[in-house]
Amino acid sequence: MNPILELKEVSVSYTPGKNAVDKVTTEIYPNTITAIMGPSGCGKSTLLRAINRMHDLYPHIKTTGEILLKDKNVLEMDAMKVRRLVGMVFQQPNPFPTMSIYDNVLAGYTLNGIRLKKREKDEIVQHSLKSVALWEEVKDVMTKRGSFLSGGQQQRLCIARTLALKPEVLLMDEPTSALDPISTNKIEELLLELKKEFTIIVVTHNMSQAARISDNSMFMYLGELIEHGNTTQMFTKPKNKRTEEYLTGVFG
Amino acid sequence: MMESITASNRLRKGKDKIIYFLVCSFSFLAMIPLFLILWDVVSKGYKNFNIRLFTEVTPSSMDALLANMNDEPIPGGILNGITGTILIVGLAILFSVPLGLSIGIYLADNHGKRFAKVVSYLTDLLQGMPSIVIGIIAYAWVVKPLGGYSALAGSVALTIMMLPMIVRSTEETLKMLPYAYKEAGLALGASYTNVVFKILLPSGFGGIFTGILLAISRVMGETAPLMLTALGASVVNWNVMEPTSAIPLLIWDFYNDPNLVDLIWSSSLLLLIVIFLLNWTAKIVARKWKV
Amino acid sequence: MKDRIFRLALFIAALTILLLTAGIIYALVSRSLDTFAEYGIWGFIANPEWDPRSATEEYGALSFIMGTLYTAFFALFICIPFSLSVALFNGEYFKGTKISSAVSSVVDLLAGIPSIVYGLWGFYSVRPIVIELGVNAQGFGIFLSSIVLAIMIIPYASSLSAEFISMVPNRMKEGAYSLGATRMEVIQRISLPTAASGIVASYILALGRALGETMAVTMLIGNTDRIPRGLRDTGNTMASVIANQFGEADGLKLSALIAIGLLLFIITAIINLIAKLAMKKLSAV
Asked: Angle formed by the axes of helices C62-88 and C142-166, to 10°?
């Protein structure tokens, strides 16, 4: 099977000469969940944000290397197109406060100036909300604003908003760290369901979460990718000593 | 030893109470002028606060004198001032809102950059400028070159006053929005333009609109800059190139003309009602559209 | 592409602030040049004579500079106990309560009343009291205008200082309370010193307001073109002389009035700069 995403010597620097992410090379395969772990400041979020070009927002951040999405280098593509192909879910649920639930799901289309027929809109909204298991809960309050939903519901709405654009890859930056255990559980179940259709990369602080949901795991330390492999194998027989120390709680 | 501590404790508690009492009573005293002013304006203004105030223009001094001698209420109203205020303030809104919003968006997005710092400092400078000096500026920029007083000159003066207020409120509001909104929008592949117009401005609507309303209410009662620019007129004028009156300008005229003194209070009452309504609306908008 | 145009438009908008400021300075300076050429800059500032009669025509700004300083500082002096009380009331004693939001909306409304209405009120309602007090025969003068001016600047001084006082961290105050301090001692030793430069900054800003305030002062100060001999005397401020005499002025007199406007602009700009520096010092703590 071909990898959907290939990283070749990817480096990101905030200040010249100092790499926050240092020459990361790896491959991600379709329909898998990959967890990126590591202590705070190891560069895991920075790496994630490089993949959908969020670093473009800050002129002082430099990204080098190659990130191939289905053999095309996203660093050379149009940033907006990349972001449609590679969706991102943030740590804090952030539904747009002025839009209704319905409009929030469609935000990706309206923001990109794509016009849809009413029937298409309804279909996309229903399908996206069903795939995040939110449809039954909100189908009667579609016109209300998203901000009255619970934290977990808001986060599922944000995932639905991203899914509506049918991305190739879904990036998630600690998507459950602001949520309670029950909501976290629901999101995790959802991710296992979603991987049938999408490829998911999730940054997490929570090792047991990584163990529960991911197929593959990456361990990063001080900007370097230390180890990348099958999750079960990595948790039972880590190849690298630092990975082992991190997983057993010696540091982190 | 113990006794002296008890005694000094009593002293300290006494002082504490006195200060508390002073703070409360001085705060109370500070509010009294508002009620005195309102009482003055309402009790003296309600008599002439009638439909004629809105439908008729300012009477001549002579007509008012005759009416006064015959013990009749003075004829006429302040229609020319009301229309003038609408014209001058309306134009100023037209000039200052689009410009102020753009500058506010620019500052919110580029803070930290050297150029933005300079712009931000100059905005503060403009905000602190006395209104009479702004009057001089508009006089030098518009009245002199065009060869006469005009509504346009007045609205240029008010624009200079409103601009920094709108810039500040827009900038502050946008800066308060969670950065996540902007990132989420861009992460969906939206262009910067669309993120600004479809997410940031709607999300910050409450704060921005409140800022605009407060700026309008602040310039509504401005007199000094208009004396140097719009001058005043005794007829209804909609031509921006002609001298035009405004409610505060008329109050100034009435104050200087003993025959027209009766109209002072009803015009002030109207002005206060409009200003307080604007402030009140601003408060409601701020509360309702709070992010 | 669309983005680039949009960003360019924003940049151009920001650029207009620069142009506006340049235009303002140019307008003021170029039209004051006649005056400075005639008397010299210092000669204009230090001369108390203001005589528009054509035979003895002579213009100096000192009377109005002194009048402005007298009224503004006296107003600031009167306003301090009231605005500091309101600030402590809202920022310390009743912070975040309903009564505090009621007090601050009343004070906000005071800020909304137009200058000219303050002038009317001062003329019709405060002036008789000043005459009754025996300050002077007509009531007009520095004393009357300063009282009204003090009321006008209370909202500016108090709302900003209240904000700074309420920002004093609770852990600092709790530390003092745990050592047995009374509320007054906490205010005196912790809250006020911590918020000091912010409070000073808000009073400097209020002073800036008072210096440039026009209509109310014009209506109440008595409009005499000489250095006031005391608080009971009449006078003119820089703003009030412009408001009063601009309409009928031309030639050298017009230039002299604009030169006074330029001086007023410079003074308020410096005052605002000082206030800004004071606040910056606070945020660095």
From this structure: 40
In single-letter form, the type of residue at position A56 comes to D
Tokens of A10: 């990817």
Q: To probe the interface with A, which of B188, B196, B209 has the most A CB atoms within 10 Å? A: B188
Query: Which two three-digit tokens encode residue C91?
Result: 């920022």
B160-179 burial, b at 16+ Cβ within 10 Å, e below that, comes to bbbbbbbbbbbbbbbeebee
Residue C150: per-residue pLDDT:
97
Q: Containing domain of residue B39, as a range?
A: 2-69
Tell me chain B's radius of gyration from C-alpha atoms: 25
- Whether the pLDDT of residue C284 is over 50: the answer is no
Residue A213 is assigned to a structural domain of this protein: yes
Subunit contact B224:C14, Cβ cutoff 8 A? no
Per-state percent for chain B, helix, strand, coil, to nearest 5:
80, 0, 20
Phi, psi of A201 (to 5 degrees): -120, 125
What residues in chain A have their Cβ under 8 A from chain B's Cβ atoms?
52, 54, 57, 80-84, 87-88, 90, 92, 94, 96-99, 107-108, 110-113, 158, 161-162, 165
**CB contact B173 to A (< 8 Å):** no
**Of A90, A96, A112, Cβ closest to residue B189:** A112
Q: Can you say how many angstroms the Cα of residue B112 is from the centroid of all Cα atoms in its chain?
A: 30
Report the distance separating Cα B77 and Cα B64, nearest Å: 11
By DSSP bridging, strand A216-221 and strand A224-230 are: antiparallel
In a domain, B44, yes or no: yes
Cα separation, A71 vs A180, in Å, equals: 39
> What is the rounded average pLDDT for all residues in chain C?
91
Structural element, H or E, at residue A14: strand A5-15
CATH class of C58-284: mainly alpha
For residues B177 and B248, state if they share a domain. yes
ipTM: 0.93
Q: Is there a contact between C215 and C121 (Cβ–Cβ < 8 Å)?
A: no
- Is the CB of residue B99 less than 8 Å away from at least one CB of chain C? yes
What's the whole-model pTM score? 0.85
Same domain, B65 and B110: no
* DSSP β-bridge partners for residue A132: none
What would the pLDDT profile of A137-189 be if each residue is shown by its tens digit? 998 999 988 878 888 899 999 999 999 988 999 999 998 888 888 889 988 99
Please report, as a single letter, which amino acid is at residue C267. Answer: I
Whether A80 sits inside 8 A of B184 (CB atoms) is no
Asked if B243 and B149 count as a contact pair (C-beta separation under 8 A), the reply is yes
Query: Which residue in the block uniquely carries the two structure tokens 């009573």?
Result: B25
Is B195 in the A-facing interface, judged by CB distances under 8 Å? yes
What's the DSSP call for residue B75? P
Question: Residues of A with CB below 8 A from B191's CB?
Answer: 80, 111-112
Task: Return the H-helix or E-strand segment holding B267.
Answer: helix B262-288
